[in-house]
Write a structure and sequence with these properties.
Layout: E1 8-13, H1 19-24, E2 29-33, H2 39-45, E3 53-56, H3 60-72, E4 80-84, H4 86-102, H5 116-136, E5 141-153, E6 161-166, H6 170-179, E7 182-188, E8 192-193, E9 205-206, E10 212-215, E11 225-226, E12 233-235, H7 243-248
Helix pairs in contact: 3-5, 4-5, 5-6
Length: 259
């Protein structure tokens, strides 16, 4: 991929998978931490990640001003700007809109009135994504880390089913999903132990797995997708410092897929 423009990459992953570590070991990163997202500090104190530039975000105005400052600096010392994590960033957006438009009223007479606050917030969120595009225009990559939750998908063609999705409002995710160049889903290999005497089609007992993997294409069970020629599955190295490299090796290839 041309180095004239950065890419936007979202890493969704189950808890304790290593999202923050992924960002910390990217080349020349700066980590912007949402309130209460102290995972990097904990990892640093434990000696599990290298010391990198960090900023603890205070509020929505603070977050919105940072991309503008980065875009205007003549010589930017970072190659990757890592946001940890989407859930906390969205909360800053909602708090800003609630205070500005609903006088801090979170009730059904205010922000939650016919869920109007979420609709209004998307306009602010789109401005944020536009600011991130200004960072990308400087040749800097934007990495958004995302927590996952499990929700039931209302399937119009068959039975409903559960799937992993990003733990933000559907309006926020809809805008972010369309904007991103690459969405990755990180999880563990699932080992299923069949019960004695059961048939191959019967349900078994999940006994976990320790091998981390990244999926790059959307499936019924998770969100993912890419505009790059990525393999469907990337096995994650045991060495945390090599995980970013394992993904990045594919991102110089031509854009071939749009999701």
């Amino acid at each position: 991929m041309s180095q004239d423009r950065g890419i936007s990459l979202i890493l969704l992953a189950v808890e304790k998978w290593g999202k923050t570590t992924f960002g910390a070991f990217s080349p020349e990163p700066a980590i912007l931490m949402a309130p209460r997202e102290t995972g990097y500090i904990t990892l640093l104190n434990a000696g599990r990640v290298p010391p990198v530039a960090t900023i603890e975000l205070k509020d929505w105005s603070h977050l919105m001003n940072l991309p503008d400052k980065i875009a205007k600096v003549d010589l930017v010392p970072y190659k990757n700007i890592v946001f940890d994590a989407l859930t906390g960033l969205e909360r800053l957006c909602h708090e800003h809109v609630c205070e500005r438009d609903y006088r801090g009223d979170w009730s059904k007479k205010g922000f939650l009135n016919y869920m109007e606050g979420y609709r209004v917030s998307v306009n602010e969120w789109l401005l944020f994504l536009s600011n991130l595009d200004r960072i990308k225009a400087r040749g800097i990559n934007v990495i958004l880390l995302g927590h996952t939750t499990i929700r039931t998908f209302n399937n119009p063609t068959g039975p409903d089913y559960d799937r992993y999705i990003c733990d933000v409002h559907e309006r926020t995710w809809g805008a972010t999903h369309k904007w991103a160049d690459c969405i990755l889903f990180g999880t563990y290999d699932t080992v299923v132990e069949a019960e004695r005497g059961s048939r191959a089609t019967d349900k078994g007992k999940g006994i976990g797995g320790t091998n981390r993997v990244i999926y790059t294409q959307r499936r019924d069970a998770w969100d993912a997708g890419s505009r790059f020629a990525l393999p469907e599955r990337i096995d994650v190295p045991d060495d945390p410092s090599k995980v970013f490299e394992a993904v990045w090796q594919y991102l110089h290839k031509p854009i071939v897929e749009v999701f």
